[in-house]
Amino acid sequence: MSDAAAPADQRADAPPVPVGDLRVAVDLDATVEGESLRVRTADGRVELFADGFAAVRHAGALRDALPDGVGGTLDDVPLGVHVAGVEVARADPGVPAGPVSRALGAAPLRIDVGGVVRALVRRRG
Question: Whole-structure pTM over 0.90, yes or no?
């Protein structure tokens, strides 16, 4: 079991990542449309873990809830998006989104089509 999947009281403190002039540590568990959503910082990145794609679709609301000025600086923070234990997308500062991401309106994320297929198979299996 990965640390991200461990119960909150058994996890190590989330390490901070730079967000603009701040260093931010995130360790958040939420339920969105009945699916688990976990957001945490690890290895200089923000990692989002979801049981399914519905929770990921609504994760943008978390960004909207941040204080003014912080949301814009998140574009400079590496981000990994995982569904059913598989990385399905990532964003890295200075690396452009691919054509699939742009077509789906998911930029600056880079969609990993193979990861999406693996996550769908795991969810069905």
Answer: no
